[in-house]
Amino acid sequence: MNRNIAIDGPSGAGKSTLAKKVAKQFGYIYLDTGAMYRAFGLYCIENGVDFSAADSENQKKLEDLTENFALDVVYENSNQQVYVNGRNVTSLIRTPEVSIAASKVAVVPKVRLKLVEIQRQIAEKSDVVMDGRDIGSYVLPNAAVKVFLTASVEIRAKRRFDELREKGNSEVTYEEVLKDMKFRDANDSSRAFAPLKQAEDAVLLDTSEMTEDESEQALINIIKSKTEM
Ligand code: DC
């Protein structure tokens, strides 16, 4: 029986934090698909792609780079780790530079198709809570539960800014984080193939006015209302 849970939404909506928590609560694995786009973005940077160039100039390079890119997603102590050609890159993919690269590589259909295939294989083998941009609308159209998680862009930027500060990044400003977030919102929503959008049968959860605990409870209520859990 399909028991997959799809959680989509823009950057900084809290998808990964909440998805991780509910996966633990229901005994599912959690798949962060953004980490897969980030891993490919990092691989492209390391292979000399200049993401400040026009997207059209980079398209062919990105397509070629998919050929020798082998991605493994494994779980170590229940934590997702991503390996690129045998090297664990998990700790290298959270920088602002890789965030922009991930958003840019995600526009290229050949890149998406390669990663979507891996995502579907994982969902076939295990019950999974999968988060991303196109999970309910494209990757898992038959998911048992689909949630579109969002919050205003200012609140998402503030949450991301606080998180970066907490991690010791004292250089970044709120304005920079807000600008990056607006860029990624526009880029992720406007691409032609599998853009960020709410699936017709997804439940909208706007956490702008909610604490993390309230958001978690609201998400659990939605999951329970859609399944027998
Ligand atoms: O969720 P995240 O911020 O780690 O995702 C990084 C980028 O990857 C994001 O800007 C858009 C892209 N992405 C995507 O296009 N589709 C997904 N399913 C997940 C992420």
Structural class: alpha/beta
Q: What is the helix fraction of residues, given as a range?
A: 40-55%
Oligomer: single chain
Q: Uncertain regions: pLDDT < 50 for 5+ in a row?
A: none
Distance between the termini: 14 Å
Please indicate the percent range of residues in DSSP E strands (runs of 2 or more).
Answer: 15-25%
* Strand elements, count: 8
Encode the helix/strand succession as letters. EHEHHEEEHHEHEHHEH
* Cα shape: globular
- Adjacency order of strands in the biggest sheet: 2-6-1-7-8
**Overall residue-averaged pLDDT value:** 94
Q: Helix count?
A: 9
What characterizes the major β-sheet? Answer: 5 strands, parallel
If you compute it from the alpha carbons, what radius of gyration comes out, rounded to the nearest whole angstrom? Answer: 17 Å
Bound molecules: 2'-deoxycytidine-5'-monophosphate
Describe the structure using short key phrases.
alpha/beta, 5-stranded parallel sheet, 3-stranded antiparallel sheet, 9 helices, binds 2'-deoxycytidine-5'-monophosphate
Describe this structure in words.
By secondary structure, this protein is of the alpha/beta class. It is built from nine helices and eight strands. The protein has helices at 15-26, 33-46, 55-66, 96-105, 109-125, 135-139, 153-166, 174-190, 212-226; strands spanning 5-8, 29-32, 71-76, 79-84, 87-88, 128-132, 145-150, 203-206. The two termini are 14 Å apart. The structure holds 2'-deoxycytidine-5'-monophosphate. The site of 2'-deoxycytidine-5'-monophosphate has 14 residues, from helix 2, helix 4 and helix 8.
